[in-house]
Amino acid sequence: MFKKILIANRGEIALRIQRSCSEMGIATVAVHSSADTQAMVVQFADESVCIGPPPSAESYLNMRAIISAAKITGAEAIHPGYGFLAENADFAEMVEAHGLCFIGPTCEHIKTMGDKIAAKKTALKLGLPIVPGSDGAVKSVEQASLIADKINYPVLIKAASGGGGRGMKIVQKKQDMEENFALCRQEALAAFGSEEVYIEKYLPSPRHIEVQVCGDGKGNAQHFWERDCSIQRRHQKVIEEAPSSLLAPRERQKICEQAQECSAKLGYRGAGTFEFLYQDGEFYFIEMNTRIQVEHPVSESICGVDLIAEQILVAAGEKKICSVAPKMLGHAIELRINAEHPETFAPSPGVIENYHAPGGLGVRVDSALFRGYKVPPFYDSLIAKLIIQAPSRKICIERAMRALNEYAIEGINTNIALHKKILATSEFANGKYDIHWLENSLV
Ligand code: ADP
Q1: Is 291 an active-site residue?
Q2: Beta carbon of 435 within 6 Å of any ligand 1 atom
Q3: What is the pLDDT of residue 320?
Q4: Is the full-model pTM beyond 0.90?
């Protein structure tokens, strides 16, 4: 087992990784920007290294500084968390080239699955159902129009390297294709450094359902059931839960086993997620995330496992993967708490003047906040995850509401009130929503 791991991330996920390491008897190195010197992970880690100024490009994305920090401190492995360098194949390669272990998949798998076109081709080859669309990259507006005529409007133009819900354009009718095609390519180039785009049928009313897997890189894999992440704003997840209230047991079993089988066939190593859209009883693969995800705690809650520990064990070659899925323990819901203005959704950085986290049975708070902490303006607005577990979905919602009522975060704006509003609706209670519901009905 590793003796020392460097955590190449910040915020709640850095602390989450530190906690697992600590329980496993592994020493930790926290790297941080000069904006994060007071971070909780810096205080809890055994060692810390400042790797640069506040902008991510000069600190959390600074590969050389991070690898130097690992070398100086004698860390043997690097955990990238999510975001930042977690799905950067060059970084994974660089880490390994320096004789360190990258806690994640091989750089080949990151490369293939990080390119959405290559990922769809791979998924199709592995027998997964995919959203109808172009065979690969679409190079011209004429080609785009031909494909759209074949699959019928509305269609979605998507950036091959897109992520975080960005790099997508809906085209409702033929006349709008030219303008949107050019715009999507331009935006993709600016945001992701590649203007490659592809086309997909736009599904009008799907749910987002994803399957958590973990493989050992030797052809063995296990699934940890599905998560339903359909409560979204601007294609970004706001609430996630497990299991999905929509699936019949046989559908659930089938899609989860398919994802597990694909991971095994790929020889996939580490934690990963197969993302699907689900509509009218059919699944459509959209992408694979080759990292731990923000919403992993809901799977941990219903499966009773520590997915970060699983990642570490697999990376160290010390995990025997059991292909039998864990027994499901009731229901879990995760509410993403963001520092943002309740109406404009503009980020709301600042000092936490008062802080009280909820507790009690079935309540978990993954957050690096404390009273006096200053939420910096440089990074993602996610400041906490409230994860609720209960024997049934109904009790889970009631418990989540109770926990939200206890949660006090003062000094900055948050979306706690929005969560209360969502949980109070009959649509959420009855599971009657799709990926557009939140934006169309509540915000
Ligand atoms: P990202 O990597 O940016 O998260 P995804 O491909 O995972 O992009 O899609 C994010 C979200 O965008 C999905 O959860 C869904 O809400 C929406 N979306 C993606 N593809 C389609 C589609 N073909 N039809 C309708 N909505 C889609």
Answers
A1: yes
A2: yes
A3: 86
A4: yes
